[in-house]
Amino acid sequence: MTDATTDRETRHDPAGSGPSVAPTGGAARAVVTTKSERAGAPLLPDAESDKYELRLQHAVSGFVDGPRAAVEEADQVVEAIVARFAETVRERRRTLRTSWQDTEEKADTERLRLALRDYRELAERLLHI
Predict the structure, then answer these.
(1) Mean pLDDT per 10-residue interval, the chain, length 129 residues
(2) Given this model, what pLDDT does residue 11 score?
(3) Burial class (CB in 10 A: 0-12, 13-18, 19+), 117
(4) Contact (CB, 8 A) for 21 and 15
(5) Which domain holds residue 31?
(6) What is the pTM of this model?
(7) I need a surface site. Which of 46, 62, 77, 88 has the fewest CB within 10 A?
(8) Domains in the chain: how many in total?
(9) DSSP single-letter state for residue 36
(10) Residue 29: closest CA among 6, 8, 1, 3
(11) What is the DSSP letter of 37?
(12) DSSP code of 44?
């Protein structure tokens, strides 16, 4: 969808994190990250994080009645979180690679600049977990 007042295209992120904006017209459109993909934003949606927090809270609250089962449950929660983070990061990398690895046309400098910025922001998010 193009906003006539700004001559910018609004696209919706399939993960549901909100719209991203890319300039229209000209040759290739540069990929612009969504707000949730920027540095400082959580890698998982709040609802999903809440689900993991509830599972962990359940494990902790069951410690008195079954210490071993509680620790095993906490281990499973951490394993699930790590797997989900890995999946999220793999998908983000795939999106970033698609933004600059273009077999049909040579990536222009602006597209490469935006990709580098997005890689840097992703790396910073991962380093500050």
Answers:
(1) 38 40 40 50 87 97 96 97 95 92 72 92 89
(2) 38
(3) middle
(4) no
(5) 2-127
(6) 0.63
(7) 46
(8) 1
(9) G
(10) 8
(11) G
(12) S
* Phi, psi for 57 (deg, rounded to 5): -60, -40
C-beta of residue 21 within 8 angstroms of C-beta of residue 33: no
- Write out the two tokens for 40: 């400082």
pLDDT of residue 31: 45
Q: Within the chain, how many helices (H) and strands (E) appear? A: 3, 3
Rounded Cα distance, 17 and 101, in Å: 24
Question: Tokens representing 78?
Answer: 């951490």
**DSSP codes joined into one string, 70-108:** HHHHHHHHHHHHHHHHHHHHHHHHHHHHHHH--SSSPPP
pLDDT at 105: 64
